[in-house]
Amino acid sequence: MPSLLILIPLFGVIILNLFFAASPRAKKYAFWAAFCLFILQMLVAIFHHPAFWNNSLDRVDAFFNASFLIDHLSFVMFLCIGMVSIASLFVARYTMSDDTGMFKFINLLIIASLGMTGIVMVKDVFSLYVFMEITAVASFLLIAFPRTLDSLEGSFKYLMLSAVATVLMLTSIGILLIVSGSTSFSAIANGIAESRNSSLITFAIGLFMCGLFIKGGLMPFHGWLPDAYSAAPAPVSVLLAGVVTKAAGIYTMIRIVTSLFPFDTAINGVLMLIGTISIFAGALTAIAQNNFKRMLAYSSISQVGYIILGLGAGTGLGIAGAVFHLFNHSVFKSLLFVNSSAVEKETGTCDMDKMGGLAQKMPVTGATSVIAMLSACGVPPLAGFWSKIMIVIALWQASHHGYAVAAVLASIITLAYFLSLQRRVFFGKLRAGFEGLKEANKTVVTVSIALAVITIGAGVFFPIIFYALILPVKEILLR
């Protein structure tokens, strides 16, 4: 019954707009409907009971000609989508006062979540492309939601570069269809295996990978990401940084690489090079930023580089480390963006030069930001330490010693810019004018504490997480 994960949100949006849009309580109905949907998605991912995943809705699946690929990688992604969507939903409740705007936002949030869920479930490149476009269109609208000059510019840049990615990927899909006769992962993998030395195949793979690099915001394909993250309203920044770029770009790259060319040394070499460039360039650029959200945006580019570096190691441990870092990054980066929304809401600015000493007035926001920062820097025993050490060990075991050393050294730069952020925003003498500042409301504080607890828990209970959730991911290489 996996198709229910797409059908329920789809009909949920239709029902909300047909029967509840005119109600004075539309915002409340939409909020709780979305919350229940995301909780349901998390529960089926956590418990992944065979009765749900192994049974199909025959008539519905036959009507849509749908078939799905569900494995442990899918479960990790379902968990990320549900968790980050809930965080975004609660931040919206905290920052949006307009009931009509909130109702529209929730509709777009459900559609974006539906698109990401489809990306995670399908097993052919054309369906994958369709759900990526659904996610992208919802994201364009969400970024432009405030209709300010900055948000429209950020949305426009995302639209333009996504259009380039679309052209590249559609061209690649066309070539792969000609070569293999089908768009399914298995048929394309067979087509590639039979024509491995074909320059046309190499050209098609290159186009598809460039499209995914753009979607994932990797350097030097990142042009849209800093403006989109910083100009988007607070709940949209949480959603984009927490899961959208990961589902549309990074997850897709992991799925494509492991399904179509799992042991290709040339592809792995390109991934490690792009990953390392992103790690260092993102981190060094983050140091120079004065805007809170913009620094977090460049930090995301750097951290995503670690995921791609682990994937490029080409081993089971490297892929498991990459997927675990994807999960960890979803948690600690969502937490940092939730806290940045609290700071922006209470101070009215994201300019770090105008802040200082905020932890005195916002102790929970300050403390949870430190936890997220330490996890991002790879400080034990937090979750980020374990995923980074898995990636470094995988690189070392695969004899990529230079990349392993680079991954360790880059953590020092990560520590440098995050210490700068903490000092300028939360520590030191309280900036004049903030004497009457208050902590964020209970809604956002609860979300921050929950994400911090997940970050600590995933690190302290790493052996349980590793064997139950992460290690089985490497089975995708054996398929």
Could you explain the architecture of this structure?
This protein has 479 residues and is mainly α. The chain contains 20 helices and no strands. The chain has helices at 4-20, 26-47, 50-53, 58-63, 72-95, 99-121, 125-143, 149-180, 185-194, 199-216, 225-231, 234-260, 265-287, 292-312, 316-347, 363-377, 383-397, 401-425, 442-460, 462-470. α12 (234-260) packs antiparallel against α15 (316-347) and α17 (383-397) runs antiparallel to α18 (401-425). The longest helix has 32 residues, at 149-180. The radius of gyration is 21 Å and the shape is globular. The protein starts with a helix and ends in a 9-residue tail after the last helix. The mean pLDDT is 88.
Low-confidence stretches: none
Beta content: under 5%
Q: Helical amount among residues, as a percent range?
A: over 70%
In whole angstroms, the N-to-C terminal distance is 22 Å
The strand count comes to 0
